[in-house]
Specification:
- The structure is a single chain.
- It is built from 13 helices and no strands.
- The protein is globular.
- By secondary structure, it is mostly helical.
- About 85% of the residues lie in helices and about 0% in strands.
Length: about 280
């Protein structure tokens, strides 16, 4: 135990780990809060689709020598808005629209990379995640935007709750369901782009899905699910980052493996409780 604490102490002496922890914990909290609503609305894979759109935007930004995050955020927000409109209008089912955007954007990203610089370190870190990729400016931007996401979520908690569980009743009581669905999509888009630096485009959706699904194995009330999901998300992040530091494994993959372990434990607890 003492040895483990000394490892943690040593880990936090490195500036890049301090930056990763500050940004990562905030992003984990945002992802878990939004994940509960997205899973309940059966729109879990929007995170995966938006992350691929983000990768496409980052590839184009890199080719044009533009600031990656400043390009990716508005593009992914626009994609989230279009996805929502397509699924609401019934022209494309939600999963079909996500699949179309996901594969299309990833293909564009790969094409742009192949005809320009090739797969450089920066784009590789966006695809697979890297704690070393978090610069000071990235952390500042992540902290500001994550704080905005948290404030908006808490401010409109009751409306988002109503839209998640019964949009028809919410509309009847005067809640602007269209606006709050868009707000949920925009907050998810921002969280996905911020998390891509750390988790990578291929794994960021797990940060949204796993904590919510894991909490639902045991908890039966909405607020309990949210609090448990936040706790699990932060715990998975800290444990995954520690594993990544100790064994030099990719940060995103390490966090997902811890998520899987937590899910298995909670699924077993849920099964025992049911009997």
């Amino acid at each position: 135990m003492t040895e483990m604490l000394s490892y943690l102490g040593e880990m936090l002496t490195y500036p890049f780990m301090q930056r990763a922890f500050v940004a990562g914990i905030l992003i984990s909290i945002c992802a878990s809060l939004l994940g509960v609503s997205l899973v309940l609305k059966r729109y879990s894979m929007i995170g995966d689709g938006l992350s691929h759109v983000g990768f496409g935007a980052l590839a184009v930004a890199s080719a044009l020598h533009l600031a990656p995050l400043l390009v990716a955020i508005p593009v992914v927000i626009l994609a989230a808005f279009v996805l929502l409109r397509l699924s609401e209008n019934g022209k494309l089912k939600g999963d079909a629209a996500v699949a179309m955007f996901s594969t299309g954007a990833l293909a564009i990203g790969v094409m742009v990379v192949s005809v320009t610089s090739g797969m450089n370190t920066d784009l590789n870190s966006y695809l697979f995640g890297s704690i070393l990729a978090m610069s000071r400016s990235d952390v500042v931007l992540s902290v500001i935007l994550a704080a905005v996401v948290l404030v908006l979520y808490l401010l409109f908690y009751n409306q988002l709750f109503a839209v998640t569980f019964d949009p028809v009743f919410a509309r009847a009581t005067g809640v602007k369901t269209g606006f709050f669905n868009v707000l949920l999509a925009v907050l998810t888009a921002v969280t996905v782009v911020l998390g891509m630096r750390m988790m990578g485009a291929l794994l960021i959706s797990s940060l949204i899905i796993f904590p919510a699904l894991t909490a639902m194995r045991v908890c039966r009330h909405y607020r309990a699910v949210i609090l448990t999901a936040v706790l699990l998300s932060v715990s998975s992040f800290v444990a995954g980052m520690t594993v990544s530091f100790l064994f030099a494994t990719p940060a995103g993959a390490s966090i997902v493996v811890v998520d899987i372990i937590f899910y298995c434990i909670f699924a077993a607890l849920g099964a025992i409780r049911a009997h």
